[in-house]
Write a structure and sequence with these properties.
Blueprint: H1 11-17, H2 56-66, E1 79-88, E2 107-116, E3 131-139, E4 142-149, H3 162-169, H4 185-193, H5 198-204, E5 219-220, E6 225-228, E7 234-243, H6 252-261, H7 265-275, E8 281-290, E9 316-326, H8 331-335, E10 348-350, H9 354-370, H10 452-459, H11 463-478, H12 483-494, H13 498-507, E11 540-545, H14 551-563, E12 567-572, E13 577-579, E14 585-587, E15 590-591, E16 602-607, H15 613-628, E17 633-635, H16 640-646, E18 654-655, H17 660-672
Parallel strand pairs: 11-12, 11-16, 12-15, 16-17, 17-18
Antiparallel strand pairs: 1-2, 1-9, 2-3, 3-4, 5-7, 6-7, 6-10, 7-8, 8-9, 13-14
The structure holds CIS-heme D hydroxychlorin gamma-spirolactone (HDD).
């Protein structure tokens, strides 16, 4: 047998190289390779005459254009992706025979697509929603897809309800509103009629639903899967991606404004970071439960509305993923990539989670429509990097030219090849779980506690996080037109926490409940974003500068920020170069009209000796918005006047004094804290 090529870090890139085409500098041809002498005028019967049917060039160009859209994904339509590499920390052979997890420094190429769930392909990115986090590992044993979200639980327990949930959250069918938003009657009608949604709705109302960046969010495989080792021993496993930059969020007012100012905010951040060599990284962590411990917990492992508290079931880090290359073509790669939780490799198997079981049908089915038939695995982005052979043939867009007269099993012509191989030789074999029971349409009693973990989530939040959850409920339910929906939601979420439900009720004109609530006191500190990594290297500062600025000090401060990985953009009244007091120059990145305070994590106001009224007005606006969004604000030199005028000089996170070096260290400290929740914001 011919030796199979070894998969390495660049295997996918090398494979894709065969398909890349650079059209620049070439002669224009038709798709048949015919060079054309003219491409601006259609062929006409006389200069002012009608266009002729024989104009094959016009027809080809127009037909291709007319057909260049494909159906968008029914969910997760708005997405963005990048290439990278996964590197295993060591061997997990005692748990799984999956080869990509089998050795220290073993490298596997990956392709990762992030997405919102509800919005259409062109919708804004900073909406309140879960985020998709799909990873395709191009392993030597075939493609393994980990198709997760940035939240560890899901809305429903059984896949048969997925179309109902999605219909409820999508724009309402009679008027197709609202786009990419859960704040409307049908979603909340679904919620109150399906109380299994309680836990996930708590996540959706939390800051996790408005990530600052795709680079700064975690990922979760959600379901219990199985690891199976070479001896056939199985463990339940949950997959977790942990961002090395920490998990960071926007505030709601800011998120809504960004949706207008820069609807591409999240993809721009990812693209620019990778482009600048600032590669995002995640560690892959696994939580393991032995088969014999399946029933030892106060939740059912098969219920996707439950998480495994990491204080009880620790996360073991098994590798690191780095995204290091942007795509060459978004349609060919990001749009045509086809993920499927059923794309597994030996050593990874399924649990009986009824949500997962339904997904195993849905994903291939949707690609058949979206990518027009059964040959989507041949598209360059979807092709495994290992060889694939079977007797499947034909279908729209088939590219392989399978040789020979045999396309069936068993055949004496081919000695019945391609032939299945034994497990020992790497053949996939399903875990032999013992099954018994009656065929029923039912739900296990063990799935019926919908509120304990929702309360655990609430218990784990800090005061500012709780305030945001109450505000989110008030916004979402406040947008619902029907009073009974608001009342129903207050009644339902009283089961999570009485004070929370009372606060929401007051805001939305519902009589606050006086009794009920939960007696669950359990908390999982890891769920609070307060406990995440905070680094200045995730922050971008808007620097407000005008001509004549004190260049010696300001440039020293900017260098000091940059040395800690802080990015900055110079914002001024007009584009071009600004000359400082000693002749040093700063290039303006943006004017007040091309950017906005919501696009920065902090503001540094410098100004200049002679700013215009417009500059002063904009500076006050930038500082005011940053203040309201709890962001660090620094001011030196002429910039200090705006801090004084706003009366905020002694507020937390506002740094407006000191020489260059003491200002830099205090401002860096304020930046590293990210948001200053203890600030008095009216
Ligand atoms: Fe799904 C896409 C994640 C439940 C049916 N899903 C899709 C994507 C992600 C998820 C990240 C986008 C993939 C990409 O980037 O191309 N889905 C989840 C998670 C779920 C989940 C974490 C619960 C744990 N999904 C789920 C159920 C069903 C589906 C229960 C149906 C039974 N999902 C689909 C789909 C999509 C999809 C309709 C649309 C586009 C696609 O598959 O390729 O088949």
């Amino acid at each position: 047998m011919a030796k199979e090529p070894k998969v390495h870090e660049n295997s996918k890139d090398e494979q894709l190289e065969q398909y890349r085409v650079d059209d620049s500098g070439k002669s224009l041809t038709t798709n048949q390779g015919l060079k054309m002498a003219e491409d601006e005028f259609s062929l006409k019967a006389g200069e002012r005459g009608s266009t002729l049917l024989e104009d094959f060039h016009f027809r080809e160009k127009m037909t291709h254009f007319d057909h260049e859209r494909i159906p968008e994904r029914v969910v997760h339509a708005r997405g963005y992706a990048a290439h990278g590499v996964f590197e295993a920390y060591g061997s997990l052979e005692h748990l799984t025979k999956a080869k990509f997890l089998s050795g220290k420094s073993k490298k596997t190429p990956v392709f990762v697509r992030f997405s919102t769930v509800a919005g259409s392909k062109g919708s804004a990115e900073t909406v309140r929603d879960a985020r998709g986090f799909s990873t395709k590992f191009y392993t030597e044993e075939g493609n393994y897809d980990l198709v997760g979200n940035n939240m560890p639980v899901f809305f429903i327990q059984d896949a048969i309800k997925f179309p109902d949930f999605v219909h409820a959250v999508k724009p309402e069918p009679h008027n197709e509103m609202p786009q990419a938003a859960s704040a409307h009657d049908t979603l909340w009608d679904f919620v109150i009629n399906n109380q299994e949604t309680a836990h996930m709705m708590m996540w959706l109302m939390s800051d996790r639903a408005i990530p600052r960046s795709f680079r700064m969010m975690d990922g979760f495989g959600v379901h219990a899967f199985r690891f199976v080792n070479a001896e056939g021993k199985s463990h339940f496993v949950k997959f977790n991606w942990k961002s090395t930059l920490g998990t960071h969020s926007l505030v709601w007012d800011e998120a809504q404004k960004i949706a207008g100012k820069d609807p591409d905010f999240n993809r721009r951040d990812l693209y620019d970071s990778i482009d600048q060599g600032n590669f995002p990284e995640w560690e892959l962590g696994v939580q393991i439960i032995a088969e014999e411990d399946e029933h030892k917990f106060d939740f059912d492992l098969l219920d996707a509305t439950k998480l495994w508290p990491q204080e009880e079931i620790p996360i073991q880090m098994v590798g690191k993923m780095t995204l290091n290359r942007n795509v060459d073509n978004v349609f060919a790669e990001t749009e045509q990539v086809a993920f499927h939780p059923g794309h597994v490799v030996p050593g990874i198997d399924f649990s009986n989670d009824p949500l997962l079981q339904g997904r195993l049908f849905s994903y291939t089915d949707t690609q058949l429509l979206r990518l027009n038939g059964p040959n989507f695995h041949e598209l360059p982005i979807n092709r495994p990097v290992c060889p694939f052979h079977n007797n499947q043939r034909d279908g729209f867009g088939r590219q392989s030219i399978n040789k020979g007269r045999v396309s069936y099993q068993k055949s004496s012509f081919t000695n019945s090849t391609p032939a299945p191989v034994s497990e020992a030789e790497g053949g996939y074999s399903h875990y032999q779980e013992k099954m018994e029971g009656r065929k029923v349409r039912a739900r296990s009693e063990s799935f019926k506690d919908h509120f304990s973990q929702a309360t655990m989530f609430w218990n784990s939040m800090t005061e500012p996080e709780r305030k945001h959850i109450i505000e989110a409920f008030s916004f979402e339910l406040g947008k619902c037109q029907e009073t009974w929906i608001r009342e129903g939601a207050v009644e339902m979420f009283t089961n999570v926490n009485l004070e929370m439900a009372q606060a929401v009720a007051k805001n939305i004109g519902v009589i606050p409940p006086t009794s009920g609530g939960s007696d669950i006191t359990k908390a999982s500190p890891a769920l609070s974003l307060d406990n995440t990594v905070k680094s200045p290297a995730t922050r971008k500062v808007g620097v407000l500068v005008d001509k004549g600025f004190n260049d010696a000090e300001v440039l020293e401060i900017l260098e000091g920020l940059e040395a800690k990985g802080v990015q900055y953009e110079v914002v001024s009244e007009m584009q071009g170069k600004l000359k400082g007091s000693r002749g040093k120059e700063l290039e303006v990145d943006h004017t007040f009209t091309t950017t906005d305070p919501v696009l920065y994590d902090a503001i540094y106001a410098v100004g200049g000796p002679d700013v215009s009224k417009k500059f002063a007005k904009e500076a006050a606006r930038y500082i005011g918005e940053a203040f309201d969004h709890y962001k660090p604000i620094g001011a030196t030199h002429d910039g200090q006047q705006w801090i004084e005028a706003a009366g905020i000089e002694s507020q937390p996170g506002v740094v407006a004094a000191g020489d260059a070096s003491s200002f830099t260290s205090s401002f860096l400290e304020a930046i590293t804290a990210h948001r200053h929740w203890d600030r008095q914001v009216e």
